[in-house]
Design goal:
globular, 6-stranded antiparallel β-sheet, 5-stranded antiparallel β-sheet, isomerase, 2 helices, Jelly Rolls, mainly beta
Length: about 180
């Protein structure tokens, strides 16, 4: 496995090695010891999967507040996404900064989104399936979000935002400024 870190400390792009032949390929998608030694010392407690049928669907930006903050390890099983994470940690020198990466089923890339970051993605191919491991179970009470189109964040989504397909929840998320300087982790 290879890892790449960003200017915003915390997130990492992980690319597992693929071994292929005439039958297809084999990949070790996750190794707990390697992850703890090379990325972050966390324990994953739940796996989630979503399917989005329509190109231009945006899911996010989501996070969970303490004490149910979640780290997420995101990968694509089918299709492709533009995956985004935004630093929302209180007193972080990179508060409000975002990073984005294309994740594809073909490439096998994974994005590590630590606790203290909002997360979202845009569907780039029809019927895309996204799989992610999380470090805390879902908690409706702690489920929060930030507006995907907040100009203060300035995410450069790869679609015309007027045509974005959103859930009712994601249409009304608060702005980054409403976090009053960030969240405690």
């Amino acid at each position: 496995m290879q890892s790449k870190f960003f200017d915003v400390p915390g997130p990492a792009l992980i690319t597992p090695n693929r071994i292929g032949d005439h039958r297809g390929y084999f990949v070790e998608a996750f190794k707990a010891d390697w992850f703890r030694e090379n990325v972050e010392d966390v324990t994953f407690v739940q796996d989630n999967q979503s399917m989005s049928a329509q190109v231009g669907t945006i899911r996010g930006l989501h996070y969970q507040s303490a004490p149910f903050g979640q780290g997420k390890l995101v990968r694509v099983l089918k299709g492709a996404i533009f995956d985004v994470t935004v630093d929302i940690r209180k007193d972080s020198p990179t508060f409000g900064q975002w990073i984005g990466a294309n994740l594809t089923a073909e490439g096998g890339e994974q994005l590590w989104v630590p606790d203290g970051f909002a997360h979202g993605f845009c569907i780039l191919e029809p019927n895309t399936e996204v799989f992610y491991k999380v470090t805390n179970p879902y908690s409706r009470e702690h489920d929060k979000g930030v507006a995907f189109d907040d100009p203060e964040i300035g995410i450069e989504w790869p679609i015309d935002l007027a045509e974005a397909v959103l859930s009712d929840k994601d249409k009304v998320q608060p702005k980054l400024a409403d976090l009053n300087g960030g969240i405690e982790i």
